[in-house]
Structure prediction request, 331 residues.
Amino acid sequence: RSEALALISTSLLQTHMDSAQASALKKLISTLKEQPELLNEPSLAFFKDYLTSLGATIPAAKAAHTHGHDSAHDSHEHKHGSGCCAHEHESHDHGHDSHSHGHGHDKEQHGSEDEEEEPEEEDPELMAPDSDPPAEVGVAAGGEVSDADMDKAGEMKMAAAEAASGGDYAKAVECYTSVLKLMPSPLVFAKRGDCFLKLKKPNAAIRDCDKALESNPDSAKALKVRGMAKRYLGDYEAAQKDLALAQRIDYDDAVDGIQRFVIKRCADRQARAVKQKAKEAERAAKAAARRREEARREYEKQKEEEAAGGGGMPGGMPGMPGMGGMPGGMG
Prediction:
């Protein structure tokens, strides 16, 4: 490249310049302004001497240096660590101009605090899921029941109701289990499920209600108990479905408060989901904008490098883009 510049400068100094040659000189000077160290090349020594004779100050030649680091950055004095996140800087001072690693330490890769989903408000009435073995379900319904079994089942129903009204739900569960062994019915399953829920065993309550609804899908009692059990497990959407159906079948004022709570929880969850999707869409849009800006900067940088000397000259003179042949034998 320096030899090409020398040839141009010699030709220009030895001939009378026309407009094309003046343009070539302008490009020569522009190149030397951007890379003044080229004046220290031996092939341009005569031009350097000429400039010095006019009182110009020529910058000293830069000492050659090498980076000495490979694709793994082994020669850096710092250690990246397994995640390459141990440093917070974006460029490193190696004794030369800014050196960019291109690790891409941005929010798109590492995330940020605002990416965390907004936590749900605590529900102090939630119950811990129970894991007891399923309770006995008795014989299959539909068989013939003797008068004696019917009388005994009636007595056990009364005992169960009495125990439940006195708050002895464990005793009520035992009595309802005895009834189910004699003459199972959807209502008895639902009532035993209600007692399980009072004992804070929501999963057992759900199993009994499922059994009741197998025989009678319109059992308002079973739907209410199962809906409340799901509410206490935090499954608000399923709870709302059961409670809404139960209220349509047989409206109960006592369930109204729980239903309003569940509806609010469902609405809050939906609002958080919408908000989270909006955040994700915003982050995706910002990431796309960053990528477009990076691509634009890279393109502009490439154009500047090509304009500064990355192209070639026709006629076998590399390094001077856009210069055509020169008259007077300077091609």
Observations:
- The beta strands are 91-92, 99-100, 312-313, 317-318.
- Residues 64-113, 311-331 have pLDDT under 50 and may be disordered.
- The longest helix spans residues 253-310.
